[in-house]
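Box 4.2: Ligand-aware structure prediction
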Amino acid sequence: MCGIIGYIGKEKCIPKIISGLEALEYRGYDSAGIAYIKNNKVIIKKEKGKIINLKNNLNFDEETYLGIGHTRWATHGEANKVNAHPHNIGKWTIVHNGIIENYAELKLELLDKGYTFKSNTDTEVACAKLDDLYKDEKDILKTLKKATTIFKGSYAFGIICSDDSSNLYAIRNTSPLIIATSDEGNFIASDVPAILNYTNKYILLDDCEIAKISNNSINIYNSSLEEIKKDILTFEGSMEVAAKNGYEHFMLKEINEQDKVFKDTINFYFDGTIDSLKNNFSFLDKYKKIDIVACGSAYHTGLIGKYLIENYANIPVNVEVASEYRYKKCFYDKDTLVILVSQSGETADTLAALRKAKDDNIDTLAIVNVIGSSIAREADKVIYIKAGCEIAVATTKAYTAQLAIFSLITTYLGFINKIIDEYELTNLLDDFKKMPKEIKKIIDDYKKYFDIADKIFKNKQIFFIGRGIDYAISMEASLKLKEISYINSVAYQAGELKHGTISLIEKNTPVIAIATDKKLYEKTVSNIKEVKSRGANVILVSNQLPDDKFYDDLILIPQIHPILVSILTIIPLQLLAYKVAKNNNCDIDKPRNLAKSVTVE
Ligand code: M6R
C-alpha cells in the first residue's frame, strides 16, 4: 500500500510525478504529496484526499527536474495533511511505502537527542534517523547502508538529500520498488504502470540494495556498498490496459474482460490436449498434500481450489488465510506443496507465508498475476495468470483467472490420479472451449442482474448462503458486495443458519442462495425454504430450473462441468455488487479505507 514515484532528468518533473501517482492511486488514496528541488531548495506540497486535490494546487510548469511523490494508505496516524508524505527533517526528504516496525523505539531515542516531530508517522521517524546517522557518517551512501541495518519491517523509500541535488536515492526491504530508465531521465516507482507513459525499461531493486540515480546514470550497491550489475527488464504490456476504454469504472471494464482473460489464461497452458497439461503441470505429480495460502479473494479461490482438487484429484488440501498461516504451527512435510495465490504478488502476509515455507524447506508454487513481483520471484515455481493489469480495488478478472488455473490443475491431477476418465475428460475439454462464449453471454445479460440490484440496494444487510463449493462462491460474492457498497453482507453455510443467524432474517431481508452443486441441491433448497418462510427475499443462483417457486428472483447459470461452474456463477454476482454500489453512489474503483495491494501486515 502507498505508491511512491521519483524522477530525475532533462524534463520538468511535476507532470511526470503526477502522472505516475495517478497510475499508482490504486495503492492508496488518503492523501498525496510531492517534493521537488528548485534553485537547490526542497519544496514540499501535500494535500489530504485523492491526487486531484494535490494536482489542483501545483504549477506543472515549475522549473524543477528532480522530485519524489507519494499517494498514501494510512498506517500510522490519521489520513490528514500533516501525516501525508513527503516528510522532511534536516537535509533529508523522503516518501515511504511500508511500515517501520521499530519506529517507536527509534522515536524515543531521537526525542532524547532533541528531534521533534510534527506527524504521527513512522516515516517521519525514519527521516529523522537518516538525518541523525548522516551526522556521524557524513556520506549519503554510508548513511543509507547503515539505515538498512537499523530499520526493521517493510519499506521502499524514495529519498532526496539536499546536499546532493544531482541524485535521487532509493532503498527497499520487502516493499516493491523498480527503477526505470529512459532517454529523458530516470525514475523510481512502486510499480510498472507508474512509468509506462515514459518507458517500459526497468530494473527490480532487491532487498537491502541501495540505488543512486542521476539524470543519465543508475548505480546500484549491495549491502557492502559494492556496485552491482542488474538486468534491465522490458515490460511487454502497454498503458492502454490502464485506461477505462469507455466504461464508467475500471471494475466494469474488468468484469467485461473476463471471457478474454479466461481464454488467455487457459490457452497459455493448454492446447486442448492432456499432453500440454502434462508439460506444464507434471511437477505437481509428486505431492501428496497441498496447503493453499492467500488473502481476501485469492483465499476464496483457494477454497474453490480445495473443493476441486479434493473431489476430482483425491489430494487433501488445507486452505489458510496468510495472516494466520504465517504464525501458526504448520504440519507440512516434504510431500507437501505450499501454493501461494496473489494477484499483486506483493501482499505482505502472503509473502511472509511463502518465506516461512521456504525457510522450512517446503516446496512452493506461486499463482500470480504481476510479472516479476516479489512472490513470483521468490517461489520455487510460478504459474502466471493472464489477467493483465487490474486496476479496480475489487478484484474480478484476476479472481476468474485464478479459478481457471485451479480448473486446469484439477483436470490434470484428476486425470493422472484416474478419478477423471477418458470420457469425462473429453466432455470437460469441450466445456473449457465453450467457456469464453458462456462468460460473454452472462456479461451481455447484465440488465437482468442490474434489475435485481435495483430491488435490493437500499437494504442494510444482505446474506449469501450455499453449501460446499457454493459456500466458497458465496464468500467471494459477499466480499465483492460489501467492499464496494459498504452494505453489511455475510456468507453462511446454508445448513448453519438455523444455529443462530436465522434470527436476523426478517421480512424482505435479501438472501442470495447459491445452489450449483447437484448433490447438495435439495439440501440447500430446504434451507432456502426455511428463510423464505421467515419473510426473506430470496434470490436463487442455480444451474437447476426449480419446479416449485420458493424464490423471488432467479439467476440461471448455464450447464457446464462442475470444475468450471464457479467461474460462471460469480460473474452475475460481480455485476450485481457493482450495480448495488453504483446505486448507492459509492466510489466503486476506490472503496473507502482500501488499497489494491496490501504490502503491510
Ligand atoms: O494481490 P492479492 O491477490 O494478494 O490481494 C489479496 C486481497 O487483498 C484481495 O483479493 C482483496 O481481498 C480484494 N480487495 C478483493 O476484491
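In the box above, the bound molecule is 5-amino-5-deoxy-1-O-phosphono-D-mannitol. The chain has three domains: 3-242, 247-439, 445-601.
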